[in-house]
Amino acid sequence: MLGIAIVVFVGALTAPPGRAALDPFGYLLLALPVAAITLRRRLPVAVLVATSACLLAYQLRGYPGVIPAVPVVVAVYVAVLAGHRRVAIATVSAGFLAVVATDLTVHSGLPFRVVLQDRFLLIGWIGAAAMAAEGLRHRRAYLAQAERRAEEAERTREEVALRRAGEERLRIARELHDSLTHSISLIKVQVGVAVHLARKNAEPVPDVLLAIQEASGDAMRELRSTLEVLRTDEVPEGEAGTNGSGLDRLGDLVERARTAGLPTTVTVDGQRRGLPPVVDRTAYRIVQEALTNITRHAGPATAAITMSYRPDSLTVQVDDDGNAAPAPRQGTAPGVGLVGMRERVTALGGSLSAGPRPLGGFTVRAELPIPSDTA
């Protein structure tokens, strides 16, 4: 604004003499366009008309120079950039024709070629401003369109990824249902028949059969829960630690381990309390997987479970005194139990350590943070 004002007034005062010297009305015609430019963004068309009218009046009066065209150049640029290209062309063309007609008819009948030469610089400024604004407007429109296309492509990619993830979950759910459900059901039925026959014949039921019967029932419940999650892609709020996979079922888990031949003790350190479902479920899974690994890899052993409750964390530790075997024994398929435990703990922001004990055996220790709002 200040720069335009300086350019206009200095240019008018230093221009070659015109047909009329600057008077108060001439200075007013210089000041009004400069003042109108301040409203160019809110009222682009009105400012263009006002500045063009002042320039036309300035030229018709014959004041020196064409410096009042500077505000018109700015107004044309803003108007075209705002999308008022036709209005800008019409306004500037009308003003130009009016000035040329006046020069040809009123002011000494100058030749048409001379009049065009005198006004050529003025038209060049205005035309350059209009072309620059039009180019910038097209560039902005192109960038906006490219951004919209990129956003649409990103949305499409996300939708495709979600659809494929959903299809993969359904495929996994079908495979689990068709394979594991059948096998576990068959085990449960056969064990149930064996238990029934033993009782029918008044024979003692082996503890191992009872443990298998209970474990197969729990496996079926958890499998159904897993299949439901895979098919719906969501876990109902408050149910992440239910369906037989929370610390409230720790006693049953320990009892099954004892029945299967693994002497197990449980020690609780601190005040036992309710936990967030995801922490409760993770703690149960860690104990479950650790006992499974002891049964598979440690040989004859005993297990000791320690649950340490702290204000902001829960520590789960499972020790055994068996033969620690970092690698699977011959004939035993490699598993991903420790990897799965570490993933569960890391997802909660906790830490997991697992390794042989100095005096023999193996230790699994997990630190599970408890959010302050639930601690």
Describe the protein in words.
With 375 residues, this protein is an alpha+beta fold. The chain is 63% helix and 10% strand. It has 10 helices and 5 strands. It has helices spanning 2-14, 24-36, 44-61, 69-81, 85-105, 112-200, 207-232, 250-259, 277-297, 337-347; strands at residues 264-269, 303-310, 313-320, 351-356, 362-369. Strands 1-2-3-5-4 form a 5-stranded mixed sheet, covered by helices on one side. A hairpin with a 2-residue loop joins β2 and β3 (313-320). α3 packs antiparallel against α4 (69-81) and α4 runs parallel beside α6. Mean pLDDT is 78; it is low at 235-243.
In short:
The protein is of the alpha+beta class and 375 residues long. The chain has helices at 2-14, 24-36, 44-61, 69-81, 85-105, 112-200, 207-232, 250-259, 277-297, 337-347, and strands spanning 264-269, 303-310, 313-320, 351-356, 362-369.
